[in-house]
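User: Please fill in residues for this 343-position structure.
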């Protein structure tokens, strides 16, 4: 299955590693090992973006949990690449380090940075910290003493407690998301205050997540072609194939356009925000409609008898809720009203 027809599929070694992780006893740690091997592709976001999207989409088509594990590691590395070089020796980073990005803001929770003789430290709580119990390092947002916000690199070791007891997901069940509590944790500033939100590539990572949704939806759509090889497809099945093809082709074109705009410098600032909102909404709608069309055409059997398909649908259903549906549509509308030149 070619996800993007103009881009080669991932190397066979990557495909084999993803499949082994997906069917192995330690999917998260095996996926993080793959992530470290794929670290060099983080440099392609912004100059060969479709190749970056293609890697993530292909991995998602093989297994969504593996893709969901790899993506934040690569996202963190792209952020570090975009920032001015910094010395990370204070938090013991090496080529085996695995990264997350914890930037959620939840009322009643927050990290606060404080100066110390040996450099900044952070204390407080941060919610929605996916895989905090497996990663070695993270990029986190924290409030500075002057009430600006900065991005900091930390090691997820001393001074940190992890609480995931409320997690009850039935999709992406291996992706534990936790609340972390930090107490005087050494932290290294990444960029100046407010840089994380203002950097040119802030919205690109969100489009990369949409590429993962697209890859998983492509895999779900394959069920329409293989559901019952002993029976001619009826009009409902044929209509479902047609609907999903149209939806997924629209999603593919949206991602290809986004990649071109990113590579040519037309996806920064307000234009990048509009592009991300638009692209993510197109892909999310295509993925949701694919799940619906496949379900209507194939009935309950694949969801109850095909473990791979059932897990893929459950995983993608959870992952798609990173798109905020009508709230994102309203945000897009607001930006469009306030912008005279849209991308």
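Assistant: Residues filled in for all 343 positions:
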């Amino acid at each position: 299955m070619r996800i993007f027809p103009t881009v080669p599929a991932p190397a066979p070694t990557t495909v084999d590693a993803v499949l082994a992780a997906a069917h192995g006893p330690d999917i998260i740690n095996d996926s993080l090992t793959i992530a470290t091997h794929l670290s060099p592709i983080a440099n392609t976001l912004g100059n060969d973006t479709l190749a970056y999207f293609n890697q993530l989409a292909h991995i998602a088509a093989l297994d969504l949990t593996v893709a969901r594990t790899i993506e934040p590691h690569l996202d963190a590395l792209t952020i570090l690449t975009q920032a001015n070089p910094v010395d990370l020796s204070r938090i013991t980073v090496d080529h085996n380090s695995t990264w997350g990005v914890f930037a959620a803001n939840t009322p009643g929770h927050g990290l606060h940075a404080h100066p110390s003789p040996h450099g900044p430290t952070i204390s407080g709580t941060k919610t929605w910290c996916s895989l905090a119990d497996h990663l070695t390092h993270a990029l986190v947002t924290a409030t500075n003493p002057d009430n600006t916000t900065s991005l900091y690199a930390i090691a997820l070791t001393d001074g940190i407690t992890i609480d995931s007891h409320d997690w009850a997901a039935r999709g992406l069940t291996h992706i534990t998301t936790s609340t972390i509590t930090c107490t005087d944790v050494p932290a290294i500033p990444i960029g100046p205050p407010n840089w994380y939100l203002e950097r040119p590539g802030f919205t690109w990572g969100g489009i990369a997540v949409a590429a993962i949704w697209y890859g998983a939806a492509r895999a779900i759509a394959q069920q329409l072609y293989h559901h019952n090889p002993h029976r001619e497809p009826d009009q409902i099945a044929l209509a479902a194939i047609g609907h999903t093809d149209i939806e997924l082709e629209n999603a593919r074109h949206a991602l290809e356009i986004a990649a071109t705009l990113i590579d040519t410098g037309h996806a920064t600032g307000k234009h990048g925000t509009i592009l991300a909102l638009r692209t993510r909404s197109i892909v999310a709608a295509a993925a949701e409609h694919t799940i619906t069309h496949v379900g209507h055409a194939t009935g309950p059997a694949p969801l109850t008898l095909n473990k791979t398909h059932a897990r893929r649908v459950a995983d993608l259903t959870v992952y798609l809720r990173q798109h905020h549906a009508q709230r994102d549509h309203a945000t897009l509308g607001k930006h469009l009203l306030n912008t005279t030149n849209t991308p």
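For context: The chain has twelve helices and eight strands.
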